[in-house]
Amino acid sequence: MNKRNRVLLSTAIIALLGMSACSGGGGTKAGDAPKAKEANANREPVELTFYRPNTGTTEEQFMDLMGKKIKEKFPFVTPKFIPFGTGTSVNEVIASGLPLDIVILSIGFIPQFQNFNLQSELDEYMKKYNYDTSKLETTTYDFVKQFGKGKTYFLPLFTTAEVLMYNKDLFDKFGVGYPKEGMTWDDLYDLSKKMTRVDGGVQHYGFLTSISHMLRVNQLSLPFVDEKTNQPAFGSDKFKQMSENFTRFYSMPGAELPKDKYGKEADLFTKDRTLAMYAYFNSTMVGAPPEMNLDAVPLPSFKEAPGVGSQMYPTFASVSSTSKNKDVAFEVLAYLTSDEMQEKFAKDGLGMPIVKNPKLLESFGQDIPQLKGKNIKAFYPAKPAPISPKTIYDDLAEKQASNAFRELAQGVSDANTAFRKGTEQAVKDIEASAKK
């Protein structure tokens, strides 16, 4: 693998954490491209500073991902990037007075980000540049409008979703048929029992997942916190029942995880290779050892939500409220959602397209050997679950929901006890946070 692909691959792993959407900032027709390029070359030079909090993205990675393409499309723009690290937390960047034009952030950081008052309302720019929001993936833009109470403060750049990955070598070894598209969770449970066994003195597991991520993008769109009351919502009967659907995979005979393995399900899948099926974002397959014989199918569905996949987990960008170049920043942001850039993100394996163009999906991971000949369409839910509401207290509630799941999975408590304790602690944590 050459240096460029190594950079792209590491960025894809770090990021985890895709029809032109604009007729102004990158949606020009092929015949108009020379004129547009000439016009851009004659514009007043500007610097645009990008910032991506809470990730390890380096300046080199940023330039390889989008900086060079931005410079090529807009010759008058010089992209700059502030790496996140010591001395460059959000508070420190704001206090320093450093120029800030575009902020890139995951959906998990959206609620906290609003506290810094850095986002700009984009609707006026969308109208000015004839930005077509109907091209964006529906549930993602629905979330944008819901979070902004009807206004648009962010645009999505790329996305990911949960997928069911499986080790074909283990299935072949044990003579069991591969997972299929269209399964229910009950179907997967039966399949998991067949793959849970001891072979050569080594315990093998049928199915496990990263429960915190599974709950975060759950297929029933159940929130951790009630957005109206800011009280924990994970103690509901529906949430407990959904959690029990997953804990049964951990408690079937032979599948009980040793305490030192809990939370390390990914290692069981790609390092120990004793786990037959693993549900997580597609970054696991992107970063898997090339010799692993992996493939994927969509997540099984709940009976009450047939065919519904996980929620999308997008990465967004916002034009900073402190930017002195908001028009140019929006044009660049719009360009990042164009077919050209969406295809680049997809080919690099960075993220799935956030625009409604099936052809772009086919290009995902074209430059990554691990994905050659794989069922790439499984990475993108045919029917994503609506994205659940987000609050600034989600992290606190998610921690307690995951703790309750762990107690239930390890047989320490029953569901009612575990989730009651978790809810009570989350209430205390939220109250303490609100007083700060």
UniProtKB/TrEMBL annotation:
UniProt entry tagged with the keyword Signal: yes
Keywords of this entry: Cell membrane, Lipoprotein, Membrane, Palmitate, Signal
Cross-referenced InterPro entries: Bact_solute-bd_prot1 (IPR050490), SBP (IPR006059)
Organism per entry: Paenibacillus allorhizosphaerae
Signal peptide stretch: 1-23
Name listed for the protein in its UniProt record: Extracellular solute-binding protein
